[in-house]
Write a structure and sequence with these properties.
Helix content is about 50%, strand content about 15%. It is an alpha/beta fold. Strands 2-3-1-4-5 form a five-stranded parallel sheet.
């Protein structure tokens, strides 16, 4: 099985993903690690990525997903997947590839962003990500106003239940 943690910057994809990976014994992939240098440079300048920028990145992530599904290895992927079309490229079907939308208010997201540093994600990108976000109509929605451990508990309870 593949679980993709989705949501805008600051929602805790990597933090919750690492806690969940530790709990499940699964491998975690952070989609940020697979951006091209050009994409990273663009974002570091506060310039939002467009669909054309994101497509090769999403396709490379899909290859990783397909490799894991083909070998029968479970994995977690922390990936913004802001639009439905991006989630389709990733193959989210809620069966073999399950999505967890980490949902929080702009204030909560800003609070998280202001308490961390990121290699290239400019804080100014949050609004463009919120403008781009198409909230998923399927999958699990987890409120991130609590602690990361509380979010992990909700996810694990859903997987086991």
């Amino acid at each position: 099985m593949v679980i993709i943690l989705i949501g805008p910057m600051g929602c805790g994809k990597t933090t919750i993903g690492q806690l969940l990976a530790d709990r499940l014994g699964w491998e975690l992939f952070d989609a940020d690690d697979y951006h091209t240098k050009a994409n990273k440079h663009k974002m570091s300048q506060g310039i939002p990525l467009n669909d054309e920028d994101r497509r090769p990145w999403l396709e490379s992530l899909r290859e990783i997903i397909d490799e894991h599904l083909g070998s029968g290895n479970d994995m977690l992927l922390a990936c913004s997947a802001l639009k439905e079309s991006y989630r389709q490229i990733l193959g989210i079907d809620q069966k073999r590839i399950f999505s967890v939308f980490l949902k929080g208010s702009k204030q909560v997201l800003e609070s998280h962003i202001n308490s961390r540093s990121h290699e290239y994600m400019s804080k100014e990108l949050l609004q463009s990500q919120l403008d781009t976000l198409e909230e998923p109509k399927t999958g699990l929605v987890v409120d991130i106003s609590g602690t990361p451990n509380e979010a992990v508990k909700v996810i694990v309870d859903r997987l086991v239940g």
